[in-house]
Amino acid sequence: TRSSRPQRMLAHVKRHAARGDPQSVIDAIDYFCRHKEWAMNVGDEKGTILDSVVCEVSPGAVLELGTYCGYSTMRIARLLAPGARLITLEFNPANAAVARQVIAWAGLEHKVQLVEGSSGDLIPQMREKFGIDSFDLVFLDHWKDWYLPDTRLMEELGLLHKGSVLLADNVICPGAPEYLAYVRSSPRYDSRYFKSHLEYTYVEDGLEKSVFPGASAGSRP
Ligand SMILES: C[C@H](C[C@H]1O[C@@H](n2cnc3c(N)ncnc32)[C@H](O)[C@@H]1O)NC(=O)c1cc(-c2ccc(F)cc2)cc(O)c1O
Ligand SMILES: [Mg+2]
Fold this sequence. Notes:
alpha/beta; globular; binds magnesium ion; 7 strands
């Protein structure tokens, strides 16, 4: 049967990127998406904003929702300190299979735990299955109407601590209006919008960075 776009992207990586060189894998995917076939990676423009937030937070524990082909997984993992961990969740098995190979080609598999399944099912298992107490950084890039329920779930499970940072892709395109309204209005978050463009296009999009000041915030009279 005909190959999928993620499979063609992986073939392009294997042909043009150097094993063990994350930047060359990132560059190969950006080239493929800009000059051959558009794909929904966070991309190079929003990717530099993601990089700057990762460097600023220098997280010990990161959660990514929506791996897709592993592009943002690599952008984050390549910047992590030794011993820091990135858990990424992907519920489409075909996408997960491509992402595993992309991450391995970049030589980052020892920093990344890719788990197949739905965020709604897996987030409640973070402690028992992965020994994670809380996350310093969460990158939300899965179904856009799951951003809010999953954020509420992480709050309720105590997976966010004072200073935890939520970084959400696509808050304009395709858009996550309920999530935006929540993080921008809730006294529980200090939220800031980083204006950019939809990956590989001139359409407006951006990232919303929301810092969780702590469970006590917003509950004081
Ligand atoms: C949702 C996808 C990304 C991946 O997320 C996995 N996923 C989902 N829900 C869950 C879950 N609940 N748990 C775990 N994984 C989960 C899925 O299988 C995809 O592989 N991302 C997008 O749809 C996306 C779309 C666009 C886009 C923009 C303009 C257009 F004209 C067309 C498309 C841009 C972007 O930047 C995106 O990020
Ligand atoms: Mg996205």
